[in-house]
């Protein structure tokens, strides 16, 4: 006897899986055609919004960097420098969740300049970082299993709700008079946004006032930019309990998983990243840019 309701649900799931799979195949083909690093200035569209969406770009990017495995576009207008980053692979998304993306600007044009300005986003409390991809298996987020049984929009909405609840801070270094940790709702000339789309891709957007960076389109000069996916702090101060394992803790015996040993009191988020197949080592690249004029 056939279960028509079950067959219909399975058919819907298969259509969703195939649609997402074909989307990522198309993205992979696109990545092969893009340069590894963007080297030319680009005027931002007049319609640009920092909203975590790529509508104004038609979801097209200037480069795909193989070291970090992200798509990105650097652009500007007369007031702001914009960075748009998109990640489609789950481990890369979780790397961003665990350590954020840092954009460093060296307006002298020298990579070794230690006085560069850096903006890091998203910034999460170590005990409050979200992880995506295996929540239904690990039980890390309520409602995720139910969402995945329905449609991509439900998954997107769950993920974006989690981001909105947990991501409230931006890290800043090198801007005189500005705190090193500011709110996403600041009035300091730094705007940020991040969203998942229905295909599972994660988009990060950043806008930084040219005034904050000491740059101007009146007399544009070449500057160096450095983009880093920071990853997790490499398994320091970790404590968790799993089936068949004793619980480690401050002063207690370390827990071993294969060749990796976890010890001490704080940092179970890194264990989640490990279990979820994420990577912890930072990845980065450098480029050079000249502000585009009208």
What's this, in brief?
Helices cover 26% and strands 25% of the residues. The chain has 294 residues and is of the alpha+beta class.
Description:
- The chain has helices at residues 4-33, 90-99, 135-138, 144-148, 152-166, 210-213, 268-275, and strands spanning 63-65, 70-76, 80-87, 101-106, 117-123, 169-173, 181-183, 190-196, 202-209, 223-229, 255-257, 260-262, 283-289.
- It has 294 residues and is of the alpha+beta class.
- The protein has two domains: 4-231 and 281-289, Immunoglobulin-like, CATH 2.60.40; 237-278, no CATH class.
- A hairpin with a 2-residue loop joins β11 and β12.
- The N and C termini lie far apart (68 Å).
What's the SSE blueprint?
Layout lengths: L3 H30 L29 E3 L4 E7 L3 E8 L2 H10 L1 E6 L10 E7 L11 H4 L5 H5 L3 H15 L2 E5 L7 E3 L6 E7 L5 E8 H4 L9 E7 L25 E3 L2 E3 L5 H8 L7 E7 L5
